Amino acid sequence: CREVLKDYPYLTVSDIEFELPRPSYMAQTLKSLQERYPDRQFSLIIGGDNLAHFERWKDYRQILDNYDILVYPRPGSPNIVPENWKRVRLFEDATLMDISSTQIREQQKLARGQQAN
Questions:
Q1: Per the confidence metrics, is the pTM higher than 0.90?
Q2: 89 partner at 20 to 30 Å CA-CA among 23, 64, 77, 110?
Q3: Where are the beta strands (DSSP E) in 1-117?
Q4: Is residue 70 a part of any domain in this protein?
């Protein structure tokens, strides 16, 4: 991830989740980041596939109320933002790429010589 973001100094990769109790939930991760860096503003970037079931996330209202959420459209996902979710924005003009974070992790494992799932 750091390599991918090297040309974007305004984006930072964090491994704070490794320090948090398991299971790890996004609301707690964002809260921990905000506590650690109170002078920073955090946003969440998710795929449209995650938006489709976002209301099932633990403490999703806390995320909606406190953070901007940027949604990257995904093929096969409805990519519809509820009207009352004011801090959620869809990247409407984004180039659609049919790749998931799971696929990226599997490629990383293969690159390191580990067996993919």
A1: no
A2: 23
A3: 43-47, 68-72, 88-90
A4: yes
